[in-house]
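Postdoc handover notes: sequence design on the structure in folder B. Input tokens:
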């Protein structure tokens, strides 16, 4: 409920203040032909309208585009304390784009699932890659690795840059390109020059029931060694160096995080409120997304 306070400065002047969704509204009611009992509900509506407009202005819009020649099931999982967006996941046919919004201070990850079957008789997992408890809508659940992750840290103040990256720390399932309508190159994260599924070493491969390579594990995921996972004695950039596997990822996808302490950090920053996330851009897709 809004917090309401009535302050009488003069007998003929009454100013009503209301706090709603971190917005302060005030209204001089001395010239209003409105019974006092209706002032609070009226101001609540006014303040809600103002607050909603401000929140909408602060929101960030995502356009997720599928340029793969097969369907995908994009998913989003928030960091702790942030809301679920886009219901946590949805179906996206080839050549289609889905628009959704996130609060201006949202942080979390977006990825694409592949090879999904959400038939009611299906048992978990429902997807060949990126599965989240066998559900279409992940509702905050993190996808099962390996999967290419797009990670965002948004700022409410749009004069300040947002931070985002594409990570292969948990492995790879699809190439992705992140861009804004800005011409500033620091706002863009390019796709890969090679399809890692085609070059993935046998020991990192994830196969589906037909024996096809559908994803490529990171060395950390495949071997669970401190030296690959950059933990314990290897928990610093000085101790955890690139491996032959992370270097393979870096050669194919130079704009992505290839391992935890990738240097220099391939982190993009841009003060924007619209982002286009394209799965299977350019050579692996079925065309380019128009502006």
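Designed sequence:
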């Amino acid at each position: 409920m809004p917090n309401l306070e009535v302050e009488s400065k003069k007998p003929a002047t009454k100013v009503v203040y209301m706090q709603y969704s971190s917005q302060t509204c005030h209204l001089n009611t001395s010239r209003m032909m409105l019974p006092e009992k209706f002032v609070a509900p009226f101001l609540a509506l006014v303040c809600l309208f103002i607050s909603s407009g401000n929140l909408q202005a602060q929101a960030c819009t995502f356009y997720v585009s599928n340029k793969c020649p097969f369907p995908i099931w994009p998913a989003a999982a928030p960091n702790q304390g942030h809301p679920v967006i886009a219901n946590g996941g949805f179906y996206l046919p080839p050549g289609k784009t889905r628009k959704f919004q996130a609060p201006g201070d949202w942080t979390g990850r977006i990825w694409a699932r592949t090879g999904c079957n959400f038939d009611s008789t299906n048992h978990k997992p429902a997807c060949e890659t990126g599965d989240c408890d066998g559900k279409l809508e992940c509702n905050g659940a993190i996808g099962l690795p390996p999967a290419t992750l797009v990670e965002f840290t948004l700022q409410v103040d749009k004069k300040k840059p947002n931070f985002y990256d594409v990570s292969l720390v948990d492995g790879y399932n699809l190439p992705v390109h992140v861009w804004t309508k800005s011409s500033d190159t620091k706002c863009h994260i390019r796709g890969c020059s090679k399809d890692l599924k085609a070059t993935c070493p046998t020991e990192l491969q994830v196969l589906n029931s037909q024996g096809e390579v559908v994803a490529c594990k990171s060395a950390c995921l495949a071997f669970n060694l401190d030296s690959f996972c950059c933990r314990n004695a290897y928990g610093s950039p000085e101790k955890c160096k690139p491996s032959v596997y992370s270097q393979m990822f870096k050669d194919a996808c130079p704009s992505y995080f290839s391992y935890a302490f990738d240097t220099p950090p391939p982190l993009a920053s841009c003060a924007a409120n619209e982002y286009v996330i394209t799965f299977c851009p350019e050579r692996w897709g079925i065309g380019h997304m128009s502006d």
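Context for whoever picks this up: The first helix runs from residue 39 to 58. Don't rerun without checking with the PI first.
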